[in-house]
Design goal:
- The protein is of the alpha/beta class and 276 residues long.
- The protein has a single domain, classed as Vaccinia Virus protein VP39 (Rossmann fold).
- It is 36% helix and 22% strand.
- It contains ten helices and seven strands.
- The longest helix has 13 residues, at 39-51.
Length: 276
């Protein structure tokens, strides 16, 4: 996989037909270094966790699911935050789950390798679903939210963060000065996600859109922050990139440098959902 491929920025038509095995392989290979490089992901996930109900004697959060649990970093924090007795960490990448299961502090957590579009869990078995930066890899949002609706109990909640078009806009603009190849994937518009939620019978209780901006010292650090967390799978498969093209890319990206460094923008959408 070319290190210079990246995440999505253009608005596509859904459903798509991504190769889930390639996505899983990319994330599996990143498991060992993910937590050290996933600074933007941690900032976003904390905002989602803050929306989840905290455990108390009055709170009846018994069973929770983390969709796209990765290394289990946030699965363990979700368990501690909610004090749930049954916690499932679900991920498409078996390598991530293998890494998660080897970490300490996994009591009350079960790890499950499965596709979020077809959750292999009993109907009405979950009180809460947490997911941060996972559902953008789905092909069919109708199937995803129908599966969420099926597994949530009445009154259950889901808090989900995903990425929108405009993510990595600096990288997209720089590549556009190099060639016309496809170097990026695509994200769904907010309207596409909301439509899928409503058609599933779920109630959208809140949305929040914002830009999480990171800064890096050089282009290599920018790409390490993408490939290092496994998010470099490319729908278009642009292929190998020559040295001259990379030099042109570097020059184009350098024109966007500010005092803090080279900017990387993540356009974030947080969805809060309830099953009535």
């Amino acid at each position: 996989m070319n290190a210079m491929t990246a995440l999505a920025v253009k608005s596509p038509a859904f459903p798509k037909n991504r190769d889930k095995s390639k996505i899983a392989d990319a994330f599996s290979k990143a498991a060992g270094q993910y937590d050290q490089l996933a600074e933007a992901q941690k900032r976003i996930a904390q905002k989602v966790l803050d929306l989840c109900p905290a455990g108390s004697e009055q709170s009846a959060v018994e069973s929770v699911l983390d969709i796209g649990c990765g290394t289990g970093y946030w699965t363990r924090r979700l368990r501690d935050h909610t004090q749930a007795q049954q916690v499932t960490g679900l991920d498409l990448a078996q390598g991530m789950l293998n890494y998660a299961s080897q970490q300490e502090g996994n009591n009350a957590i079960q790890w499950l390798c499965a596709d979020a579009e077809q959750l292999p869990l009993p109907a009405e078995s979950l009180d809460l679903i947490f997911s941060s930066l996972a559902i953008q890899w789905c092909n069919d949002y109708q199937a995803l939210f129908a599966s969420i609706a099926k597994t949530l109990r009445s009154g259950g909640e889901a808090h989900i963060a995903t990425l929108l078009p405009g993510t990595l806009c600096e990288l997209e603009q720089s590549w556009a000065q190099v060639d016309n190849k496809v170097h990026i994937n695509q994200f769904a518009e907010t309207s596409t996600l909301i439509s899928a939620i409503k058609s599933s019978g779920l109630t959208l209780t809140a949305t929040h859109e914002y830009c999480e901006k990171m800064f890096y010292p050089d282009l290599r650090a920018v790409f390490d922050s993408i490939k290092g967390v496994g998010a470099h799978h490319n729908d278009g498969e642009a292929g190998l990139t020559g040295r001259r093209s990379l030099l042109k890319l570097k020059q184009a990206y350098e024109s966007q440098r500010i005092a803090e460094g080279l900017p990387v923008s993540y356009q974030v959408l947080i969805l809060s959902i309830r099953k009535s």
